[in-house]
Amino acid sequence: MAQIAFIGLGNMGGPMAANLVKAGHKVHAFDLVQGALDEFVKVGGVASSCASEAIIGAQVVISMLPAGQHVAGLYLGDEQGIGGLLKQLAKGTLVVDSSTIDAQTSRRVEVNANKLGINFVDAPVSGGTAGAKAGTLSFIVGGEKIAFEQAQPILQAMGKNIFHAGAVGAGQVAKMCNNMLLSVLMAGTAEALQMGIENGLDPKVLSDIMVKSSGRNWALEIYNPVPGVMKSAPASNNYQGGFMVDLMNKDLGLALAAAAASDSSVPMGKQAAKLFNDHGDAGYGGLDFSSIYQHYLSNKA
Ligand code: NAD
Fold it and tell me: Residue 162's Cα: distance from chain center in Å?
């Protein structure tokens, strides 16, 4: 069992760190919010007063932070390079960043980590808060093979599917590609269902037809956006729970920035981003992203 420092006990990090404790690892954690640390102590973790304290004796450091600037600030310090956790870590430490951030920041942290003899992987996740609690997340890992192999047994305590996407940054790029595709599929599914309903079709009947036809996709199959069609979907629970519009917008922002950097043509991604941004701006950022169906109903184009 390893001694692990865990930084960022939010909606995702809290249950992920708890699963590491459950698996028998010794976990010292830090979060800016005292309440999150108090909850972590209740499940058997150790609360630290700062990140530098959490890493004392750690073989592995895991971070689960909101965005790129938090990750860069934690590991690299401020713009002058003052502070930063990397310089305080022992040679041979493995650093795993599971935050969803831009690939450039992941690569910047890796370059600095490697100079100090520290292994780094980016390992963003898919599966949401339910997957974090159940320990069934998918980890999409970018990094050297040796670092990936080092990370695998640790990630297995928090997830079910562990993918090696390629070099550092590849985890982030794969996650962005997936979520951009998901946004297009969800918007397209909502669009087709709305058109069918307005032409007199029953949404359940239409969904059953399309799920066995060539329009079949994940949104239709297990996440139907029309209320009442699928009992277990957020749409049937006032779009509560699930994956928030605000988080989809964050991921689409990262995807479009990556596409611009690689000069990739992403007209569908841009269109989906516009729909989800407008929906968030209209005050629905806190709802599950399948609520894009409601956006179609109230915005007749
Ligand atoms: P969150 O806002 O709930 O948690 C982030 C935590 O980081 C907060 O508790 C905050 O206090 C802490 N924090 C920020 N800066 C810190 C610092 N310098 N030191 C210590 N703690 C610090 O966010 P979340 O929902 O847990 O998401 C975390 C990451 O996972 C994000 O990048 C998000 O995009 C990604 N993600 C989220 C979901 C989801 O469904 N929530 C799903 C997949 C991926």
Answer: 14
